[in-house]
Amino acid sequence: MIEVPCWGCVALGLFVVALLYLAYSGLFYPIVFRAAKPPHICNKLSIFYKIHVGPYSNVGSLFGEAIKLLPSCDDGTTLGIYYDDPKTVKSENCRSVVAAVVGENDSPIDANVKQRYLQAGYKQYELPAVSRAVFCYFPFKGFASILISVFRVYPKLEQFILSNNLKAFPCLEVYHKQQIAFISPLEHHKAFYAPGIEFTEEE
């Protein structure tokens, strides 16, 4: 006799699997913001970057390209800098930068790495060291983590900045190993506008 599957049990099983995966990706991860010395940008960073103008959801391919050019994909650090609020700026006009971090605190840059990025059309820039910023951490387990973090982190970030009457901009996402650091500098704002991006003072 052929046993008929219990479709309710199958659906419940799939729901549990999906929920566990979302939990693993950060669905219930506690989001805690602080205004203090931030990770990563507490050091001066040497980066190679490309400018993107358009929906922020379209920067994924640039991140993929940037990480592949690093000597070690598994241990490399990439970052995105987002300059415009998509709630007030049309998505096709939103400006961002995607970059790979190739050095800290004026450490020598490998000549071969530099050549690879320049040949691929990247520009070189230095981000300043920052002593104070608003930041939080989020797990990075794959693409689902990125989607979840966007919907969970940014509303809380905006609320934290407004409730504490802070002047924090632009927004950075720093990807390193299995962690995303969301950071908004409280100082040196203009220096985070890479050449090719016009500085706009936040209200």
Overview of the molecule:
The protein is an alpha+beta fold. The protein contains 4 helices and 8 strands, in the order H-E-E-H-E-E-H-E-E-H-E-E. An 8-stranded antiparallel β-sheet has the order 1-6-8-7-3-4-2-5, with helices on one face. The longest helix is centred in the last third of the chain and has 21 residues. The chain is globular, with a radius of gyration of 19 Å. The N and C termini lie far apart (72 Å). The relative contact order is 0.21. The mean pLDDT is 90.
Task: Give a nutshell description of this structure.
This protein has 4 helices and 8 strands; from the N terminus they run αββαββαββαββ. It has 203 residues and is of the alpha+beta class. The protein has an 8-stranded antiparallel beta sheet with strand order 1-6-8-7-3-4-2-5, covered by helices on one side.
- Rg from C-alpha positions? 19 Å
Largest sheet: 8 strands, antiparallel
SSE sequence, one letter per element: HEEHEEHEEHEE
| Average of pLDDT | 90
Query: Helix share of residues?
Result: 25-40%
Task: From the structure above, extract its key features.
203 residues, eight-stranded antiparallel β-sheet, 8 strands
Topology:
Blueprint: H1 7-24, E1 34-36, E2 45-53, H2 60-68, E3 77-82, E4 95-104, H3 111-119, E5 123-127, E6 133-139, H4 143-163, E7 171-176, E8 179-185
Antiparallel strand pairs: 1-6, 2-4, 2-5, 3-4, 3-7, 6-8, 7-8
